[in-house]
Write a structure and sequence with these properties.
Radius of gyration: 13 Å
Helix content: 25-40%
Number of helices: 3
CATH architecture: 2-Layer Sandwich
Number of strands: 5
Largest sheet: 5 strands, antiparallel
Number of domains: 1
Distance between the termini: 23 Å
CATH superfamily: Dynein light chain 2a, cytoplasmic
Length: 116
């Protein structure tokens, strides 16, 4: 599935799939302003699950749930899609259209249930 996500756009820099407690990542070569692989690992294992949990709980109160998160860091966007078995995280170039790319990623997983 990671290869399918990279095919969506040349602006995809990094993909992580966190499924049932197992992390799989792939980074495009020669990405300018990339974070370290160690930093990416902790983002996927700690930061993204915490942000998804908080946003999901808030969204479930009276906002109609949570579809995805989009974080704008200085060097890139991070699109995070919650699914029942974990999350999909896609790093997108800062000059790209992250929402359009995110919706294409979401289409790949549309038959997967979201986390509660």
């Amino acid at each position: 599935m990671i290869d399918e996500i990279f095919k969506i756009s040349k602006d995809v820099r990094y993909v992580a799939i966190y499924r049932d407690g197992k992390l799989e990542t792939q980074t495009k070569d020669n990405t300018e302003g990339a974070s370290s692989s160690e930093s990416d690992k902790y983002e996927e294992l700690i930061a993204n699950p915490v942000m998804l949990k908080a946003a999901s709980q808030r969204g479930n109160i009276d906002c109609g749930g949570l579809d995805f998160l989009l974080v704008r860091y200085g060097n890139f966007f991070q699109f995070i899609l919650p699914v029942s078995w974990g999350h999909v995280s896609v790093c997108i170039d800062k000059d790209a259209e992250p929402i359009a790319i995110g919706y294409k990623v979401k289409e790949l997983f549309e038959n997967e249930p979201k986390i509660a």
